[in-house]
Write a structure and sequence with these properties.
By secondary structure, this protein is α/β, with parallel strands linked by helices. The chain folds into two domains: 3-224, DHBP synthase, CATH 3.90.870; 242-323, Threonylcarbamoyl-AMP synthase, C-terminal domain (Rossmann fold, 3-Layer(aba) Sandwich), CATH 3.40.50.11030. 37% of the residues lie in helices and 18% in strands. The chain is built from twelve helices and 14 strands. It has an eleven-stranded mixed sheet with strand order 1-8-2-3-7-4-6-5-9-10-11, sandwiched between helices. The chain has a three-stranded parallel sheet with strand order 12-14-13, sandwiched between helices. Helix 1 crosses helix 6. The longest helix has 18 residues, at 250-267. The radius of gyration is 20 Å and the shape is globular. The structure holds threonylcarbamoyladenylate and magnesium ion (MG). Residues 34, 36-37, 39, 63-66, 97, 99, 101, 113, 116, 118-120, 122, 142-144, 181-182, 184, 195-196, 217-218 line the site of threonylcarbamoyladenylate.
Amino acid sequence: MTARITIDPRSPSPDSIRQAVEVLRAGGLVAFPTETVYGLGAHALDAAAVNKIFAAKDRPGWDPLIVHVADTTMARSLSKDLPPLFDALTERFWPGPLTLVVNKAAHVPEQVTAGRPTVALRQPRHPVAAALLAAARLPIAAPSANRFGRPSPTSAEHVLEDLAGRVDLILDAGPTPLGVESTVLDLTQSPPAILRPGGVGREDLAAAIGNVTRAAGVAEEVAARGLAGPGMTVKHYAPRARVELIDGTADEQTALLARRAAELRKAGTKFTVLQSPGDNQRYARTLYAQLREADAKNIGVILAVLPPPDGMGLAVRDRLKRAAGMGNEHP
Ligand code: TXA
Ligand code: MG
């Protein structure tokens, strides 16, 4: 049974937070909102609870989880040999949509890190996530609260679609403000490498710490080395619809979109257009809900107009390219 509690995103009721803390302390699963997407949380130092996350999501065991922390003190307790850049980045971007990969402390369970010597840490800024972490005084391991291979959930309804009966409690604070996941930055490489573009733009990272590169994430690495194992897939979210990327200059995009729309109309193909001219933030916020809707409506073709790669645009481009089966973006 999944319980659902409505909670005010601006001033979360302490009583509701307390109920969620009890579930976490007892080794259960709580879905909660962050500023990016909903997370599926468990007590990060309880290996049995962490195993339940993988089972609920059908997530392959090779993909490590992000550990959410209440503050930098908690982050320090879970890591070792932190580089000086850690302070510069957390002062500037925490709490917020930036996940930092650092060397892990010995007591972080290998289930959380998929056997890696590193751990991914993030202090979220959504008031419900912050209140939950402060009240629990526990690190919370939480991937996005979707089934493996589905778009990340930006509402409690999305969580229920994928995980009803598989999660003990959902804290429903309405839609999440950013809509795409955090930027994952690997601080064990020098210069630091973006493993996944997300809520903090590359320009902002570069302005804060100088040189930042781009590197393959865990899924790409596992795919490249053929390590997924039998019956296991590294496949990313792929809608039932065929995703056609509309790229080029603004004028080229307008012309291509008009031509393809006319062709599809003539052919009687059910299609939808994804775009948000001049507003990358809005594009990010609505992207996953639109992809879910396209699946629900049995759309044949998604015409996805790629936004410019600044700010949230880089993350939107990355997710659209993955949905089109074209891998990730290396700008
Ligand atoms: O915004 C977000 O990051 C959301 C919210 C809930 O915080 N979480 C999220 O988690 O997107 P998930 O599990 O869907 O994605 C975590 C990403 C994966 O790409 C994983 O491979 C990477 O972080 N990751 C986790 N630990 C890592 C590690 N030790 N080294 C490299 N990559 C790691
Ligand atoms: Mg995910």
